[in-house]
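Q: Got a minute? One more chain.
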Amino acid sequence: MECVRVRGRTAESGQPGYDAATLAAAKAANNTAHKASDDAAFALTKIQPTTISGVSALLTYVDAFNSGAFYLEPNGDDAIPDFASAPYCWPRVSGEDDIDMFGYALLDNVRRATAAMQ
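A: Always. Here it is, folded:
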């Protein structure tokens, strides 16, 4: 999440303080962090809990994420707004008719996990 601040405070071309190498490094770090975040989110759709407590922990985590429980602390005079997790922060995976499929994949993981417990 800190990459949002670093990228946000890096000057673009034509802005005071612009440096091409600094901007390229900030963009690369931002892309790497977002890929790692997406990979971790996708793991939630593939790694099946093996107990009811595990299913509960998965759903509790998703609820906490959607409720903004993960956030950046305010950073002094930083002009970049504070980040908090939210439902729109999950990876966007579009299916037919441009329907976001991430939530369905997560629920399917829970369905498969509970079916395996029976």
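A: The first helix runs from residue 2 to 8.
Q: Perfect, thanks.
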